[in-house]
Amino acid sequence: MRRIITYIIAMLVLTTMSISAKNAWEYRSVSAGGAYETAATWDDKVPSGASLDKAWYLYGAVSRTGDISSTQSGVIYGTFTVSGNFSCSNGGAFSIESGATLEVFGNLNSSQTVTVNPGGTLIVHGNFTNSGGGSTTLAGNVVVLGNVDFKNTSVSNTGNLVVGGTLFT
């Protein structure tokens, strides 16, 4: 009996450690979403300032006032609105899933992989630049009011791409 109790306690401790370790390495928004700057928007770990420096997963509607940068991979399942510029570098690849939207009221600059999956939407009110280091897959809806510049990146476009400015490849 003592052996069984010891085993159960050990399993509980290991499970708790595993859950804690996982959350320490990522940001997850709650399904209701909210303001990026508000702790209640996040499931466990709150991003520090304007940098997503751990893997990130956005559910619900999350809004960021001001510029933001990402140096880690991320997935958008809900709506992410950035009232500023969004920069992705050093592993900051991201994807927009079906039914999800990323709207940037500034420029989107990336040197990593950008994926807009079928049914996903990307709206950029400024310019969109992907300058190498990854690929650009546009299988959903993409609207860019400014210029689009793809430098040193492979591009796959099977979705809808609307460019208000000039398309550079």
What does this structure look like?
The chain has 169 residues and is mostly beta strands. It is built from one helix and 21 strands. It has one helix spanning 2-24, and strands at 26-28, 33-35, 51-52, 55-58, 61-65, 68-70, 74-76, 79-83, 86-88, 94-96, 101-104, 108-110, 114-116, 121-124, 128-131, 135-138, 141-144, 148-151, 154-157, 160-163, 167-168. Strands 1-4-7-10-13-16-19 form a seven-stranded parallel beta sheet. It has a seven-stranded parallel beta sheet with strand order 2-5-8-11-14-17-20, with no helix packed on it. The N and C termini lie far apart (69 Å).
Which key features would you list for this structure?
7-stranded parallel sheet; globular; 21 strands
Category by helix and strand content: mainly beta
Outline: globular
Main beta sheet = 7 strands, parallel
| Model regions low in confidence, pLDDT < 50 over at least 5 residues | 12-22
Order of helices and strands: HEEEEEEEEEEEEEEEEEEEEE
- Helical content band: 10-25%
Strand order of the largest sheet: 1-4-7-10-13-16-19
Total of DSSP H or I helical runs spanning 4+ residues? 1
Would you tell me the overall average pLDDT?
88
Count of beta strands: 21
Q: What is the terminal separation in angstroms?
A: 69 Å
